[in-house]
Amino acid sequence: MNQHNVTFKFGVDTMEKTIELVSSFLDQLYFSFINPFFYFLGQGLEYLIIKPLDFFHFQPVSKIIVVAILTALLSLFLRRLFKVDKKERNFKKIFTEKKKKQQDFSLITDWKSKEAFYRASDNDIDEDFNTYLAGRYASYVAVYMLPIFLAMHWLGIIFNEARFVMDLPANAFGLEGLSISLVFLTTYLTALITFYFVSKIPKNKAAYN
User: Fold this and answer.
1) DSSP H helix total and E strand total for the chain
2) Is 17 helix (H, G, I), strand (E, B) or coil?
3) Nearest 5 degrees, angle CA 38-CA 42-CA 48?
4) Which residue segment(s) compose the domain that 180 sits in?
5) pLDDT averaged over every residue in the chain
6) Residues of the chain with pLDDT > 90: what percent?
7) Residue 78 contacts by C-beta under 8 Å, 6 or more apart in sequence?
8) How many alpha carbons lie under 13 Å from residue 97 in its C-beta half-sphere?
9) φ and ψ at residue 167, rounded to 5 degrees
10) If phi over 0 gives left and psi between -120 and 50 gives alpha, with beta otherwise, what is residue 59?
11) Measured distance CA(177)–CA(185) in Å, rounded
12) Residues 74 and 6 both lie in one domain
């Protein structure tokens, strides 16, 4: 019993020390590299984007709109860089081919063999789908969610976490003002949808001709 308690205590102490080392390493990584990197990145973007807009006397709302449009362009660039569309087309092609092959199983007369083939094929398709789904989720986080989060966090720093960047008069909607998130997300989504349809126009014309 005593030996068991000693072994258990040793295991707990080892785990606590490991967690402490990992936590210390992550703290050092954050404060020594990650935090300075994003600080200098934010400073650089402020001089490249915000300062020129200040020179032309852009209002806060206009600045947020410009940043949102640039973020939408960044998302489209990352989508192309990660070949999201190509991966989706490849998955649909493979999925269709495997589903088509399942039609050949109907020619098998032995029902046990037929069931085994169907089960193996379904498992294979399910595995491909799960892999595709995980990859698609990771891609969409990197392409859309991460740029949105970083851009809005940066804008919050630029405007000192202001509640509103423009006050509104009394209205039926009950809006006291325009917040950073409202202006940014509305512009981002509008720009993303617009750029997407514009990018499809040449292809549609070529297909029509």
Assistant:
1) 8, 2
2) helix
3) 145
4) 41-199
5) 83
6) 31
7) 142, 143, 147
8) 8
9) -80, 145
10) beta
11) 15
12) no
**Count of residues in the chain:** 209
**Domain tally for the chain?**
2
The pLDDT value recorded for residue 110 is 76
Distance, in Å, from the CA atom of 68 to the CA atom of 143, rounded to the nearest integer, reads 14
The helix (run of H) or strand (run of E) holding residue 166 is strand 166-167
In this prediction, residue 61 carries a pLDDT of 92
> Do residues 27 and 55 share a domain?
no
Mean pLDDT of 172-179: 74
- Continuous H helices in 50-179: 51-55, 60-81, 84-101, 111-140, 146-158
**205 lies in some domain:** no
DSSP strand pairing (177-178 vs 166-167):
antiparallel
pTM: 0.77
Residue whose token pair is 């806060």 = 60
- As given in the structure block, the two tokens for residue 92 are 């649909």
Tokens of 194: 């617009």
- Rounded to an integer, what distance in angstroms lies between the CA atom of residue 9 and that of residue 15? 10
**Does 19 fall in a domain?**
yes
Q: Are residues 84 and 116 in the same domain?
A: yes
Helix (H) or strand (E) holding 167: strand 166-167
Nearest to 183 by CA among 143, 142, 155: 155
Please tell me whether residues 99 and 126 are part of one structural domain: yes
